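Changelog-adjacent note: as of this version, every example in the card shows the full chain rather than a window. The one below runs 292 residues end to end.
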Amino acid sequence: MSDQADNGDDDDLKPPPGAQRPKAPVRKAANRRKFIRTAALTCGVVGLSLAGWMPVAQAHKKRLRPPGALEEHDFLSSCIKCGQCVQVCPVAAIKLADIDEGFGIGVPYIDAREQACDFSCDAVQCILACPTGALTYKKPGFLKLRDGMKMAKDPVLKAKAKDAEPTLNLKERIGVARLARPDACLAVRGEGFKGQARGAAFKGRMRYMDVDRWKPVPVKDHPYERDVCDLCVTECPIQDAIRLEAFTGPDGLKKYRPVVLEQCVGCGVCEMICPVEPTAIVVDIRKEWKEA
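Full-length structure tokens:
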């Protein structure tokens, strides 16, 4: 009797045929799925944000900054990403970082291989245009100036050599050039160069004094013909920043080697104009000057 009573009670709890089951468990399951989706989306957004921040935080991706830039931490803290420096650059050397730069998005940088700063503006207009001091001629006293970043003397701009005041009011370099691939350097190999330095498709521009002091022209429109390649020396806009030194190669022939001097400001023209691909000479970003 007891078993029959129990079975009867169970039958009473079952919904009649065709009737819908209660919806509460379905709603709970739907809410659970919605919560999981929301949590996953939130984690994804946070993860992407952190992924963009990490390269800057851990300095995985260094950028060459415009002339007069503060040390990286101070620069990133001071720059308001207004783009004024971009607008005044006559050769469009300054670009704004894209989203892959994380917290550095919108911060100005220079890709010297694509377009170097050749000081076509004479007065370094990006510094004059900067409203916050992120780019400056002279650091405030409370910011330390690394000894190896100091210029031994104000750099002389070749284009202004005959002017009453030929120097640039720069006290600190943004990097130092280095012959990274001597075996590929045409001068080291004792070879000359003829033609367009970077080919017909290259879009970079430079100021050529023999063309127009105030109007930079495409590099592709200014071909070269050199018995010994010396483009990194002749096209460097700064006086006494780089020179060719002769040496005798293993084959007994006279060859030449580019030697970077203390007056190098790290503008990147040598890196841009080098006809070797990939370039034989590069700019080490924020590198301190050290006697070789």
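Structural remarks: The chain has one domain: 72-285.
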